[in-house]
Fold each of these.
Amino acid sequence: MPILLLLLALLLPAPLRAQEPGPPNTVTVSATGVVQREPDRAKLLLSVESFAGTAQEAAGRNAERMDALLAALRRVGLDPDDIRTVSYSLDPEYDFRQDAPRQPGEDRIIGYRARNTVEVTIDAIDRVGTIIDAAIQAGANRVLGISFELRDPDAARREAIAIAVGKARAEAEAVAAAVGRPLGPVLSVSTTGSFPVPVPMYRMDAVQAARAVATPIEPGTLEVAASITVVYALERR
């Protein structure tokens, strides 16, 4: 190509190219909503434990005590569906004393221990102490723990989400006003959250329970939180 034509080609404007749209102008905000609720359900772990010289005797004695416990729980108004067995064990116990008589290599069994644990669901929080007292009097010799929770945790979480959405919207509007742009529609939303963790209380054995005239129970409150992240568009003026 002659040099003159090459120079003319270089001086001519290049053809206009299609402009690719850039990323949308957005604002991303995060917020957390928290609600507090008084628990309306308690779960109680009760255990009956018996020791005897033979496995059969330990199991039989424990079965009698468990029957008495279940009858007592029904008398205080609990339905069979509110009571379920969560564990049962029957184990030998050994004499590990150095001076205990035994043959070489022999483990000397001194008896057997039977344990039966039930979980009791109570939907009347004000009756928890009464039910514990009735269980102890009927033969339960371990209160392994109490936890408090909500019968409908989803409702509390939905309320926490609504609070988080309102806070996120207010923050996004503040950002948009600060940069002088109208707030546009929501482009995406993501949520995270936690259901209320059951609140454990304490363990009690039969000796502790016998010292108390009535078992006091204070369930406190449960906290439910939900967090959201929202991406809003920023409109052009």
Amino acid sequence: LPPERYESGFMAPVKLWGPRVGLLALISLALIVLLSTRQARTFVQGLLRPIPSLNVKRYVLATFDQLVEGMAAIGHPVRLLQALALTLGVWGGWLVAILCILAAFEVDLPLDGALFMESSLTLSMMLPQAPGFLGLFQVVTEQTLAWYDTPVAKAEGIALIFWSVCFVPITLIGLYEGSRQGLSLSGGQSEVYDELAGDDEG
């Protein structure tokens, strides 16, 4: 971001802690990769050896195994590169969508502003909220654009249209694919579920 955007105000702590958090994330990723190796399990078993309770040992080791299993893709170098490439592709596509929406509303936001908007939305999605991110998504978009002196009316319009572009199509596709799989919004058992249950009983 340009210096005048973060030298004072609420963004000053971001300048201070942002690089530190980024470095911590990279170190955490490296540790997760190391935990996915066989040597790591042997090391954990060695750490647990002095503990007298067998139940505690089993619980800790089972928790460790679950963590490693959940991070199996990250521990595999090729899959890790594939995941990173896919992530960059998704982020790049989202950035292009933001720039197109801004251009449609004739809002001249610099590239750093679009990146800041994308990062703010991504972080906000980690918070518990309404289904489909309805509400907080609009607030974060409007506040980010307001920070770049975008008129309120345009910011509200961009927030609504961008949310629609991001979530309405995939929701409709999900409903269509769910119906093809025999899923129901009513919560009742679908025909597919009934067939599977019948096979189990047989």
Amino acid sequence: RGRFDGVRAYFHHPVKSGRAIRRAYNDYAVRNFTVDHAAELDKVLAECGGGSGLGIQVRFATPPGYAAFDLSAKFGAKPEGAAALLRAVDEAGAAPGLSFHVGSQCRKPEAFRVALALAGEIIAAAGVAICSLNVGGGFPVGYSEDAPALDLYFAEIAAGVAALELGERCV
């Protein structure tokens, strides 16, 4: 602390030890966390003394087939679980958000629009207005093959976010 006063720090890995959460909260003023199951939400709330003042994003699993490495096989709540978890975050008094990661080395920009449409379904099922949306990563790096231009990805993200009509509350 001190060196970067005024910055907003995030702890986006969906699986964290209680000690890591406590240190992030107390030593580094982290107030934004990501969870993908109820036990992780309970742990964050316990280590941070409740939900007030926190931003908690629910990471949801995205459909496979778009990336070289599908991270949703390991991380992310299924849509129905994500909706329930989003409601639990809201009920705990934290600022609710959604997060996803389409997978590493994603070579299909439309993966983001598909994931954002799924985010809309989760928001509707939860009945909760979100305060934040994290589109994760997954943008490809051209190693031995050419990767699609980043502009194609950003266009898909912009169109997908616009379709959600999230309002000014969501960052």
Amino acid sequence: MVTGIELRALTEAQFAGIYQAWLEYALLVFPAQHLADREQVAFARCFGELVPGLELAELSNVKPDGTLRDAPDDDMMKIIRGNMHWHQDNTYMPLQAKGAVFSARVVPAADGDTAFADMRASYAALDAPTRQRVDGLSAYHSLAHSQRKLGEETKAEESEYIGYGLDVAEAPLRPLVKVHPETGAPSLAVGRHAYGIPGLQERESEALLDELISFAVSDPARVYQHRWSAGDVIAWDNRCLMHRACAWDYDEPRVMLHSRIAGDPNSELAA
């Protein structure tokens, strides 16, 4: 939790301190910032270039006309429900995301949290045989595959969902162990988008990936769940954290704004 600082009026020295803390902790919470759209984008750009089209993406169950989404086949809700499973951003794209800045505009009276898992600590906690096994393995990543697996397949051309990540021609292949390009720390790199480990049968691959995800989030010491208040801002390092949204009563509005930080091609390109 970072207090006593205004993100809309950062000095270079203040951001330098924030960035070093971000590398160390991977997750920073700035309560009650209430940033305007342009202020959030400006803060996110301090971390690096933003993913085109995701400079400020609204994740919300509120339609443009102000009514709430309630149709079970609404593609935006399918993506929101999909994101309630553990994942890392942009692993299904050729270039994985570096991180994200996320803020809360409207929050429900209860629930609707966001949870984070430290994948550095998860890798460090693996027993020696498992660590030796995963060190040499990779997996394919696909948003279309993960949505289909959950029964939440989307048809973006027929809805308001922008379709980002659903039209990737060739699923990227990524190692199960990610070495952080700035700190050198290894972390477990799995999540709902991972599937199809080369060299393993489909059932064996799926079982191993499920086992690794379950292990990663099994210890409360490696997981933080944030209860949002309107105006909160979070910055997380996508290179070493998994995250997931938590369900809420969809009869209540929840409006979140996501600014996705693009990865460095020298370290975040798929294999």
